[in-house]
Structures are given as C-alpha cells and as structure tokens.
Write a structure and sequence with these properties.
The complex is a heterodimer of chains A (180) and B (313).
Chain A lengths: L4 E4 L1 H18 L6 E6 L2 H17 L5 E4 L29 E9 L3 H11 L6 E9 L11 E5 L6 E6 L8 E6 L4
Parallel strand pairs in A: 2-3, 2-4, 4-5, 5-6
Antiparallel strand pairs in A: 1-8, 7-8
Chain B lengths: L15 H18 L13 E6 L5 H12 L3 E6 L11 H10 L4 E6 L4 H8 L3 E7 L5 H15 L6 E5 L6 H12 L3 E5 L15 E3 L2 H5 L4 E4 L15 H8 L3 H4 L7 E3 L12 H4 L6 H20 L10
Parallel strand pairs in B: 1-2, 1-3, 3-4, 5-6, 5-8, 6-7, 8-9
Helix pairs in contact in B: 1-5, 1-11, 2-11, 5-6, 5-11
Classes of the chains: A alpha/beta (180), B alpha/beta (313).
Chain lengths: 180, 313
C-alpha cells in the first residue's frame, strides 16, 4: 500500500472508543435498558469492546449481540450472494435502547438494512448509531449519534479498519483505490 | 466469491467450498427460523415456482415455506392438476412459467436429468428437488448440515447408509456430498438393491447389517421405494425387516453416540423400530428443521447476482 495514510493508530482507536463509551453513558441515563448490536464484521469487535467499557462505567453487564445484515441488503440481485454469518441477539430488543455499532459509515445503506433487521426482532424503545469512522457520502438520510473520527474522503478512496481480534494491530488507514 | 452458480442441479459437480458455503449460509437462516418474526426480505419481489411433476409433500412444503420466509411469491404446480396431463410438453410448461417472470423454478421429476434439461434453455434459476434415481441435492445438503451440527465435523466420520440404494437419489447425493467432505461411507442392504458397482463411488459395500453399523457414527436409513421398483427386489417386507431393519438388539451393538437419520417418510416397524425413531438417538425431526434452513440458503444463493428484470435494449 504505497499511498496508505494512517487515520487512527492503536492508541488513538482506543481513546476514540473510550470517549464513545462515555458519550453513550452520558446520553443514556437508564443504563439497564441499553444493549449493543455490532454489525459484521468490524462492528462486532467494536461492540464487544464498547460493551466491556460500558460495563466498567456502569458496573453492570451490558448485553451485546452481533448482526449480519446480508439478508436485508438492497443490492442482493446485483451481485453474487454475500457470505452470511448467523445473527445472534441473546436478548429481547423490545423496550431496549439498541446501539448499533459499525466500523465505517459511508452510504448509510448498511445502517438502513440493520434498522430493518432490528425491527424484525421486536420493537426497541430507540435505536442509536455508533461508528468508528464517518467518511461522508451519504445516500440516505442517516446520521450517527456517536462518531470516533470524521474523515472527509473522495469516492475513489478506501478506508481499511484492522483489528487486533483478527491478528493484526488496531489501525485505520486511507488509501487510493486501485492506485499505483 | 464462493458461490457463483445460477442453478443447483446436483452435488456431483459442486466443489467442497461450494458445499461448505451452503452449510454456512444455512446456519444464518436456521437462526431466522428461531425468531418471533421468521421472515427476511432477501427474495422480496421474486417469484419461486414449485414445479412438481412427481408427487411430493414434504419436500414441496419445505421449499414453499423456505421461499415464503424469504418473502418470495410462491406458485405450486403439481402434475396431476396441470396441463402436462393434457399433453403439454415439459419444455412448454416451463416456458409458460417463465413467461410469468418466474425467477427460480424448483423442480421434482421422475426422469433423471430433467432439471438439467430445463436449465439449458431457461433464464430462470433451476433447483433440483429430486430427479428420478439420480440426485436430491438439498436432501444431501441438509443431511450434511445435520451431521456437522450434531458432530461438529464431517471429515473422518463413519456414515452407514442402509436400505434401498439402487433406486435412491438420496443415497447418490449423500455419497457425493459425504465423500467430498471426507467421511467414510458404507452402504448396506439387499444385494439386489446395493450393487457392488457403488464401490466405484468410493464406498464400502457390505450385505451384513451388523458389520455395516458397527463403528458407525451416523446410520442413515432409507425407505424401500416401492413406487420406483419395477419388480420385487426382495422376497418380503418381513424378511427385509429381519435382515436389515434397525432393531433395538442391533442398535445395542453400535457406538452409544451413533445417531440415526432418515429422510422420511419413515415406515415404522419396517426399516426402523418404532421406539428407535422416537429415541434421543434419532435426529429425524432435526433433519426436517434443518431442511428448511438449507433450502432458504439454496434459494438465497442461486438468486445472487440475477439483476432486476433485465430489459432488452
């Protein structure tokens, strides 16, 4: 990757997540009704870390689930079928404040699919959105409640998020697509 | 991408990766079936036609429910009430269904190769729901899913298929899937129904049921298909039961963790003792549940990349 620019290193990513956890705690006084749902794949790692941080802040186990939005995509008939992971939500979403967690917010189509998928599971009291990176270029009227870092990008740039859970160091990089 | 096929016609031509993709995708769909709202919009606006030229209840119901849970529209087309009875050819019937903009045609036919024939000229995807004595791919996939779910793996397991192998598309598809996935397959039944030629598919063939089930991790029982036999292949049902039926005495000599499978419909007291069918060793009803998830996965995968209605320029 000759043109890759570091957006967040491991320490900066950790700080961003700690800040998001405190913002979530500030916004949601009733800690007992908060539950996190990570969107595959990156969102699941982030949700797990946020759940850990929030459990520390509130001294209370925060429920956490993982969601694959593949069945709810709006482009299923335009490309080969995506690989699906089971959606595991080990709590009743009805009445909960569900915080959707994703690594990168881009067009907003993934979030739209996730909102539909959550609604299929019950009737949450409210849904909030937490993302590590907001790179702009929304195609739908969707806005994140909690953002790690806003990164203005061009459409031909690519954001890559790496996680220690996948065996590499935590980092977020920006590079030109198909460059070099 | 691990799945780029428009059709599912047989197991023989699938790669190991493609089989594993179906099984992994089915895990996600099984979770959908356990929710309060058992429906996802993956095939919204698509039309699935169940073209069952040979009668079937359980496979058709399973495909019908699978399509409905994916939010597709479903038409059921049975031969006995159709224009096929009035002399229309299969090709014309299929063309007519396609003229209604069907996206996926699920086909059951008594002639081997019938789905392959349709796939050659239809724009719609074709899913084989059983063709003659040739293949029944979704049955093999749901059996493999059930084995993997219960045993955590397939490679290295000993699987015994007991019963009518010669006339069984379930047996053929299972042999392809299991051997590709690394299981050791043993076939057993009356010599007239288990020809030695199956050894060429990589199976062990034996006519001694005790030898066949000893050491087995999975015992898959097949029904005697009276409707497919042109002449009697063994003297009597009673003799079949005494020689090959899975009785409690026989089961007692198998591994205690060996599981009993059956594609249904079961004939209690013929190929399987009634108590065994209802015991904790039997995963027959898990197979039914898993069949739904596997068929959802197959419909989802063959639908991939089809595009909206292609409008000719």
């Amino acid at each position: 990757m000759p043109n890759a620019t570091m957006i967040l290193n491991a320490a900066a990513m950790e700080r961003a997540l700690t800040r998001i956890a405190h913002e979530i705690a500030e916004r949601n006084e009733n800690s007992a009704e908060v539950a996190l749902v990570g969107i595959h794949r990156g969102g699941v790692f982030l949700a797990r870390r946020l759940a850990g941080a929030l459990s520390g802040i509130w001294s209370l186990a925060v429920p956490m689930g993982s969601m694959d939005i593949g069945m709810h995509r709006d482009d299923l008939d335009r490309q080969p079928a995506p690989t699906l992971q089971p959606t595991v939500i080990p709590f009743d979403v009805t009445g909960k404040t569900v915080i959707l967690v994703d690594d990168v917010l881009f067009s907003g189509r993934t979030t739209r699919a996730a909102l539909d998928a959550i609604m299929d599971l019950g009737r949450p009291k409210r849904i909030q959105l937490a993302v590590l990176i907001d790179r702009g270029h929304r195609e739908l009227p969707i806005k994140a409640d909690f953002v790690g870092k806003n990164v203005p990008t061009a459409l031909d740039e690519r954001i890559t998020v790496r996680f220690r859970e996948e065996g590499s160091a935590d980092e977020v990089t920006l590079e030109k697509k198909g460059g070099a | 991408m691990s799945w780029n096929r428009k059709h599912l016609l047989d197991i023989q031509s699938l790669t190991v990766e493609e089989i594993v993709t179906v099984l992994d995708t089915a895990r996600a769909f099984k979770a959908v079936g356990e929710r309060a709202v058992k429906k996802v919009p993956a095939l919204r606006g698509k039309t699935v036609v169940n073209l069952f030229v040979e009668p079937s209840t359980r496979t058709r119901i399973s495909f019908e429910l699978a399509a409905q849970r994916l939010t597709a529209d479903v038409i059921n087309f049975s031969a006995e009430f159709s224009s096929l009875k009035k002399g229309e050819t299969l090709k014309d019937t299929a063309r007519n269904l396609e003229a209604l903009n069907a996206d996926i045609i699920v086909m059951r036919h008594s002639a081997s190769g019938a789905p392959h024939f349709l796939a050659r000229f239809l724009r719609a995807s074709v899913v084989n729901a059983g063709d003659g004595a040739h293949e029944h791919p979704t049955q093999a996939l749901l059996d493999a899913f059930t084995v993997r779910e219960k045993k955590g793996k397939i490679a290295g397991l000993n699987v015994t298929i007991l019963g009518d192998i010669l006339y069984s598309r379930v047996a053929r598809s299972n042999i392809w899937a299991l051997t590709k996935l690394g299981a050791r397959v043993t076939l057993c039944g009356p010599a007239t129904l288990v020809p030695k030629v199956f050894e060429q598919m990589g199976c062990r063939v034996t006519y001694n049921v005790d030898e066949a089930i000893e050491g087995a991790d999975i015992i898959n029982l097949l029904r005697i298909q009276h409707e497919r036999q042109r002449k009697t292949m063994f003297p009597s049902i009673g003799e079949y039961t005494s020689l090959f039926g899975l009785t409690k005495a026989r089961l007692a000599r198998t591994k205690p963790e060996a599981l009993i499978m059956h594609p249904g419909p079961i004939n209690r007291g013929v190929e399987i003792d009634s108590e065994i069918a209802d015991s904790s060793r039997s995963v027959i009803l898990d197979q039914v549940t898993n069949g739904l998830a596997v068929r959802m996965a197959v419909l989802f995968l063959v639908n991939g990349g089809k595009g909206p209605q292609e409008v000719a320029a």
